[in-house]
Amino acid sequence: MQKEIFLKQIILVTDGESNSFKNPINITKKVIKEGITVSTIGILNEKSNTRAKFELESIADIGKGVCELTNIENLSSTVYNTTKKSIYNTLQSVINTELKKVVGSDISNVDPTCRQKVIMMMEDLSDSFDLKTIILLDTSKSMNLKVNAAKKSIINLLNTLKSRKGKNHIAVMIFPYKDKDYKLICDFTDNIRTLKKSLKSIVTQGLTPTGEALENAYIHMKRD
């Protein structure tokens, strides 16, 4: 059953609802068809509107990813935990598909001895397959006081992932950028120095064109 797994994921980090022409929920329906997982992290508080929460939860649900709502103080750990959960969910989905082919049942319905072996295999796989992640970072005006914490969380993610056996590459796309909806400021890299240098160029401004940015993150992931 064991085979090489290559996980591609997009993690959207934002503090609010999109306010642009393209609907990010509809874009996500296209993304998941290509086997690219979409997870969301909302930097929200009690004053955040319910539409923002619904949008983030819907994107992650359709994108077969994870939705986490957090505050700025816990952002770094949330970014890592979201990645970890997404990896586990993807593995579980793949293995359940294989189990159904072989024994006609998923992991929840196999006998305890077999289940334990499958779980051990999942733990081993989660550490060994290659991982490509695009961090889609909201840099709209409302993110002004949050963007430094977001930068640190991205750097910490790559540092933490380096303990894995598999290869880890992170790209960063911000939205908006000057008069454009998005900009890829860092292509896929496993180099901390390259990542840090690229993050220095971030400036907060403008609105939140989430749909347009998500669509272009998806196009970039497909192209790579």
Automatic annotation (TrEMBL):
Matching Pfam families: VWA, VWA_2
Domain VWFA: 1-91, 132-224
Coiled-coil intervals: none
Highest taxon of source: Bacteria
PROSITE patterns in the cross-refs: VWFA
InterPro entries the UniProt entry points to: VWF_A, vWFA_dom_sf
Protein name: VWA domain-containing protein
Source organism of the structure: Senegalia massiliensis
